[in-house]
Amino acid sequence: MTTKREIKSWGYERGKMVAETIDLIKENEQLIPTRNTAFFTQFLEINLDEALEAELNARQFSPFELIAKDLNNLTGLKSYEPWEVYEEGVLQAIEHVLVQRLQQELN
pLDDT by residue (tens digit) across 33-45? Predict the structure, then answer.
């Protein structure tokens, strides 16, 4: 039986893959060395939107239909919404990876 933790890990792995491979958007490159909090927030917002859009677009291609089938089959059988748990994992991974990537840019 598929657990909530497994579903979240499916989303986390997919979100991680997307966030690691997208090109980062830096609206104002000269702010990077300043470690400016406003830049950090702006960087996360812009790139989070881009990564989430990339992840949604990637759902059109294989092997996502296998994940979608599993999530759809679990819907209504659980006390939670499998798609919400999956998307929670995607979001957590993207945020985590983007923070790591920004920290690398700052060092």
Answer: 556 677 778 778 8
